[in-house]
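Before the break, one more example. Copy the sequence into your notebook; we will annotate it together after we see the structure.
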Amino acid sequence: MHYVALTGGIGGAKLALGLARILAADEIAFVVNTGDDFEHLGLHISPDMDTLTYTLAGLSNPEAGWGRKDESWQFMAALDELGGETWFRLGDRDLALHVTRTGMLKEGATLTQATRRIAASLGVRQPIIPMSDDPVRTQVHTASGPMAFQHYFVRDRCEPAVTGFEFAGAEDAVPSPELATHLDGCDGIVICPSNPFVSVDPILAVPGLEEALKASGAPLVAVSPIVGGAAIKGPTAKMMGELGVPATADQVAEHYAGFIDGFILDQQDAALDGTLAMPTRVAQSLMVTLEDRERLAAETLDFVNALRKGTD
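Here is what the structure looks like once it is written out:
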């Protein structure tokens, strides 16, 4: 069996870890949002890919959900003394990853190649694939104008009201060449509970990528990032409200309508089971413990396999 999972950010990385723990390393590959990537202090930063890499390597900060555990902050303190930009915090250990990646990219490596080498160095055996080697940058439209995603998300703490999104450079991007290898003979595709607007939509905005996922013939199942009207993690519910969309699980399913074959609802939204335009499955999707992650991963794969066999 072989599966592909689309993910971005902390919420998606939780389910990704569950999948990685119950599947062999050659049975799962992760396609990751790079719309959050940006250049900062002369370095190429890939927040979503780094979150997943640290999570799978057992190095993530369990309290913050991002960055490395057991981090130190001498670089940031020294940068602050010099009057540098400190709104995006880079720990000393985390900084080593960004320096390494930036150096490899400058030497001619693609983002896919750099990611593979970094992940392997940290002991990650599962393929982590950027959605594209080409730059795609998420722009958040607000009442006061467009903002780079990290300015909106980190610097301004998601405070500006959202009016829409743009994925600059997507029209000229192509999917990572490694993706085709993992879609060949794929048994199922999972969309992790990541923000549909700024974590999943940038992936699908890369020309040819959505078509390639559909053409694989594998059943596509999305796990709702909205539970009982609230986001599992991050500003998804806030964004939906500002866009005039009810912050409910069925609205997330509607966002994916025509693309996915199945949708997983949390137990708190069980009343929606059987009412949507696609098959649904009810599961405990709030992941607090490692056992929660593994349980949801197993339930998700069971749903995928049932859809493939036509038994659900």
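The chain has a mean pLDDT of 95. The first helix runs from residue 9 to 22. Try to locate both features in your own notes.
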